[in-house]
Write a structure and sequence with these properties.
- The protein has a domain of about 80 residues.
- The radius of gyration is 20 Å and the shape is globular.
- Helix 6 links the parallel strand 11 and strand 12.
- It has a 7-stranded mixed β-sheet. Strands 8-9-10-11-12-13 form a 6-stranded mixed β-sheet.
- It is an alpha/beta fold.
- It contains 11 helices and 13 strands.
- It starts with a helix and ends in a 5-residue tail after the last helix.
- Helix content is about 35%, strand content about 20%.
- The chain binds zinc ion.
- Zinc ion binds next to loops.
Length: about 325
């Protein structure tokens, strides 16, 4: 019965929804396939670098002995380094035990001192190295007020000591780096770090090479997420350093936005057709019901993390469907 129901729902939106969207943008996304490896630094543009890795079979803190492991290769958050004549501005810092290696990578880019550390959001795979960086370098850490609040809520050491609510900017050595809060999405504090002279953004986990994850306890929202991506798309950039994964283009973000909206529409369609939350309690069921293969997210590196919040996701979308 359940299979029949889901099959009929799928058939309905395959006929009605997907055909229309697919004409605008191809839905199928090729997520980067990673191999195990250490940290590495890539040049993004003149004066801007990204530090990726280490590439692990599962996240450092996410792998529980004997616990579920999706078997994918993970990497902690992408770190960015902006070089100015008067010093360096670093965005995010990965896990505490990786800070030594991260700072060693930073030194391969420039011998100039790190002057500021900026945070994209509060998650441990991106910024739980904050306390170690502060202890090592003594720098100020700048982050959105909600990032600081999430640090304090979780008793996570290394909270930002300089906060803002809408936007802020660091001016160093004739270079401007902006921090912009565009709305809720992955969390309540997602900050886009903007390098206007290079037309490049670091998005944190608002954009990742894989399925977007919504941290509901951390203030995330799937409905707001799409609006926040719309505001991001209003900005002038051509290159994206995502929270995780390969560099992207603005067109990649447009396609990601279409896929996200399509997934939200599909969840609403399931609710309208009377599919219950209990019918979506395993990942294989959800893969089929939401057509994740069609979106390219059926086995992305973040699909398992996303699945952890599927109940809250169902509730959020169900609340937007008229009775
Ligand atoms: Zn995150």
């Amino acid at each position: 019965m359940r299979t029949l129901l889901i099959a009929s729902v799928l058939a309905a939106f395959v006929l009605l929804g997907v055909a229309a969207v697919a004409q605008q943008l191809p839905l199928r996304q090729e997520v980067e396939r990673l191999a195990q490896g250490p940290l590495r630094t890539d040049r993004v543009k003149e004066g801007l670098y990204v530090i990726r890795g280490p590439f692990l079979p599962c996240t450092t803190r996410g792998c529980r002995p004997g616990g579920p492991d999706d078997g994918l290769i993970h990497e902690p958050g992408d770190v960015a380094v902006r070089v100015t004549p008067d010093g360096l501005i670093v965005i995010d810092d990965k896990y505490p035990e990786m800070v030594g290696d991260v700072l060693a990578q930073v030194r391969t880019v420039s011998a100039l001192p790190v002057k500021y550390l900026l945070n994209s959001h509060h998650h441990g795979d991106h910024v739980s190295g904050n306390a170690n960086v502060r202890a090592t370098l003594g720098v100020d850490i700048i982050g959105h007020r909600s990032i600081r609040e999430n640090f304090l809520r979780l008793n996570q050491p290394g909270e930002p000591n300089i906060t803002f609510t809408e936007q802020a900017a660091v001016h160093l050595g004739g270079v401007e780096v902006q921090l912009r809060w565009l709305g809720r999405g992955h969390t309540s504090g997602d900050t886009v770090i903007y390098f206007p002279d290079l037309r490049t953004v670091h998005t944190g986990d608002l954009v990742i090479d894989g399925m977007p994850v919504i941290d509901y306890p951390g203030g995330g929202s799937a409905v707001e997420f799409v609006r926040t991506i719309d505001r991001l798309l209003e900005m002038d950039f051509d290159t994206v350093i995502p929270g995780h994964g390969r560099l992207m283009t603005k067109d990649d973000v447009r396609a990601y936005r279409v896929r996200f909206q399509t997934m939200n529409d599909r969840m609403r369609a399931l609710v309208r057709r009377g599919v219950s939350k209990e019918q979506l309690d395993t990942l294989p069921e959800v893969r089929t019901a939401l057509g994740l293969a069609d979106l390219g997210w059926d086995d992305s590196v973040s699909t398992t993390a996303w699945f952890g919040s599927v109940g809250r996701y169902y509730d959020e979308l169900a609340a937007t469907v008229a009775p």
